């Protein structure tokens, strides 16, 4: 995510790209959430992705059904990605300033100490190349980039977690597979504020921040995705195309990097959704920790149950991440072109 644009513009382009990608795949996101919510059920009672989508489309008002909760989800996506990209870019630029002020001084060769070496510049023959003796600002290490990503993820996800919880509740509230006792005509879509109020009345502040524990290690996901994307760009693209790669490659690399980052962390995604679903309502009920939830899920359905809904998550991530990278890149290129055109008009 190396760019010379200000953090605000990078954050805006990233948030816009994420929102566009999210809107495109939202029905798939809804189906995936419902599959994840049913992970506690026996395997033969769970629907696959195709059957879940068919079930959603079988409703009379299927358009309102497949887009239920999109308002909260779009708001969560916009805020989360804006805060993430803004924080990430600001910290990255701050780290660059720090490295510039604390450059690495190249070590001299011991056998050259006290000797006079020839100067390629021909200035007195008292020094070697200036680039070899002047301090050089060091580039951020992979560990520094990863820590910046984790910190950015903690800030963005921590702030938007209540809205994410609202989104999960709204996505599963009209699921007839989980609410079999609820009459179809009594079902009513609640607004964001109504859902927030309901969750607070049920579980207090703790309920609004359900899924916080799995969210903490999941902050690795965006930074890991960006890191893998950067590695793929360096490995697969020639140097002349790395700054502005073709649109198709940008989409493909963004999608592949998201898939490679998601698979090892997916069980945590599942646990987060189960925590936010509100199955165990009430302030006085014992709430299972992450390890207890993992063990319970494995005992019921085996290891494969931990990957319930993975196919939907991967397809959703392929499209969403690819579109986000594509839109972000195009917005940034448009801003740069507009700035250059304006500068040229001023100097002309």
TrEMBL record:
Keyword terms of this UniProt record: Membrane, Repeat, Transmembrane, Transmembrane helix, Transport
Signal peptide location: none
Subcellular location: Membrane
Coiled-coil parts of chain: none
PROSITE patterns in the record: SOLCAR
InterPro entries assigned: MCP_dom_sf (IPR023395), MCP_transmembrane (IPR018108), Mito/Peroxisomal_Carrier (IPR052217)
GO molecular function: ADP transmembrane transporter activity
Stretches forming Solcar repeats: 5-94, 140-235, 245-334
Membrane topology field: Multi-pass membrane protein
Pfam families named in the record: Mito_carr (PF00153)
GO cellular component terms attached to this protein's record: membrane
Membership in a protein family: Belongs to the mitochondrial carrier (TC 2.A.29) family.
Name of the protein in question: Solute carrier family 25 (Peroxisomal adenine nucleotide transporter), member 17
